[in-house]
Amino acid sequence: MIEEAIGDSLQSFLEEAQKDYEQTQRDLKEIDILIKQSAAEVERLAQRNAQVTNYTRQLQTNFETLPREDIKEAYEALNDVQQRLFTMRGQLEKLQSDQRNLERLSEFQRRLLELTEEMGSVPTGAKNPVRKVAGDQSNVIRVIQTEELGRQSLVRRMHDGPASSLSNFILQAEICQRFFDVNPDRARAELNALKGAAAATFNDVKDFIFDLRPMMLDDLGVVPTLRRYVESFQEKNSISVPITVTGVERRLESHIEVTIFRGVQELLNNSLLHAQATQVQVSLDLAQDLVQAVVEDNGSGFNVDETLNSNSRTIGLSSLRERIEMLGGEMKIHSRMGHGTRVEFAIPITMDTY
After folding, report:
1. Contact, 44 vs 37, CB < 8 A?
2. Rounded to whole angstroms, how far apart are CA atoms 194 and 45?
């Protein structure tokens, strides 16, 4: 009786998995068409950008005699086509990334179908494999979603920040160059403005690099990197974030250091963006065989069970918990509406550190 029930469940799961696999194949065909269309549009905009750039360069020979409105119109056209080109390239990269993720999901589904078909029947008393394989697929999807959310955020920050600023640098540089002969004071003022904008953009780029992969994490380890990150986080967001480190400060295995840093980074961003916290406390304890991190804020709090069971903002938390559990660790979340949030996670140190 039990075997029959399990067999029926497995068959039902196989049918559902087959439908999901077929849907993924359709999605792959659709995204392939979109990629080809986007690639063609990128090529068209690249050609248009070359034409407008050449026209703008031709204007330089008559820069001082042309009406300022004509110059402004030319540079606005150049800026517009460059912005559209940048946007389309970002869209193309996003589609290509989605395609790679769908291909990985498709391969996972194919292997899953082969595995479940080979199972046939399940012996009495054995654990139901359907729940496990379904859970594995769900985990893969969450990891893919988390990765894509991070990339989308980075693309938006790049587009709204450095990319937009760099487009304006072209016009400012040309104006500076021409004013040197006719109005040196104006040229110096424009040059100072350009220098300030370039410095701000450079700082933005450094922040992006640090968020993606801080080099000092590899060079100095997780403790100095966390201190530097928390200091920068406070300065940028005007929020108090005291950090306490106890135990013996030392280097840990690379994958453990990365998990600790990304975990604290994720939790700090959650406190700021979702909880609207005005103060966050970070503590890190490096014991002999265990490293424990705690991030506690005074924000709005949330219903833990209800939120973790939803599909909204908890992708990052779920992914973090999975990474920690894969390392043999544990993550606990304590929160109530209106009473802030405390998240603590611990990872065992199973090998010698240095």
Report:
1. no
2. 27
